Amino acid sequence: MNISHVLIVEQGTPFEEGAFIPLSGVKTVLGRQGNQWDPDIAFNNVFVSRKHLIIHRKNGQFFIEDLNSKHGTFLNNQRLKANEQVPLRVTDKITLANELIQLSFSANLDETFDMLPVNKSVAGHVATDCYLDPLKQEAVIQEVPYQFSGKEYMCFEYLLQNRDGFVSKEALKKKVWPERCGNAEETPDVSNEEINVLLYRIRRKTQRQICIENIRGKGYILSFHEEAGRGH
Fold it and tell me: Which residues does UniProt assign to DNA binding (predicted)?
């Protein structure tokens, strides 16, 4: 199986927070759009050079190279030297434009989850206090409030109602995107990327206190990390 990799946008106009940008080409140029220049991935920021950086794919390995940009490219808070290729590793953080653009390099979890063993020490759970406030659209976990958008709250609420149980992808789509259903029997037209973005935001907002097992092509199981049940 081919393992695809993506950039996850944590911050960066015009992309939405949590957007997945596939790295499918041999070379992917990031920069700012010009009159006669259109990079593979374009950001709307004056601190981004027209040809800011390039990501190379060679024999399944990815490398990042700053193209002598004016304001620099930072990998894990270290400024890269211009025109030097540096290997990328999963979870690496890429920042541009004085941290106004923040990206994470990641494997596509939806495609690779079935290849990875579950770490039971991380995926385990204990009884955890969690309260939902539908008016504020927030969850309170161990007395710490986490606020969600409408879709995020609907998704988290439904998964929590079925805590430690399997929720099919089709059922989740119907619950979170009912406006896209023509009738009760129809499954809404929702892409895997939309679901991945939503789950990414929930994980990030709850500071990874929850574990959402992603079973490729089937559905999800929500549980709590052991650490969430312990006092601080």
Answer: 122-224
Rg (CA), the chain: 20
Q: Where are the alpha helices (DSSP H) in 61-149?
A: 109-112, 120-123
* CATH match of 5-107 with 2.60.200.20: yes
CA distance 214 to 96: 31
What are the domain boundaries of the chain? 5-107, 112-229
Which amino acid type is present at position 150? G
* Angle at alpha carbon of residue 157, lines to 151 and 159, rounded to 5°: 105
The 10s digit of each residue's pLDDT in 149-162 is 999 999 999 999 99
pLDDT digits (tens, 9 = 90+) for 195-208: 888 888 898 888 76
45: exposed, middle or buried (Cβ count in 10 Å: 0-12, 13-18, 19+): middle
Give the containing element (helix H, strand E) for 203.
helix 192-205
| Global confidence as pTM | 0.62
Report the DSSP beta bridge partners of residue 144: 141
Sheet holding 130-133, edge to edge: 130-133, 138-141, 144-147
Domain 112-229 adopts which CATH fold?
Answer: Arc Repressor Mutant, subunit A (1.10.10)
Q: Give all strands (DSSP E) within 88-154, no chain letters.
A: 93-96, 101-107, 130-133, 138-141, 144-147
Q: Is 215 helix (H, G, I), strand (E, B) or coil?
A: strand
Sequence-distant (≥ 6) Cβ neighbours of residue 53 within 8 angstroms:
29, 30, 31, 64, 65, 66, 67, 69, 73, 80, 94, 96
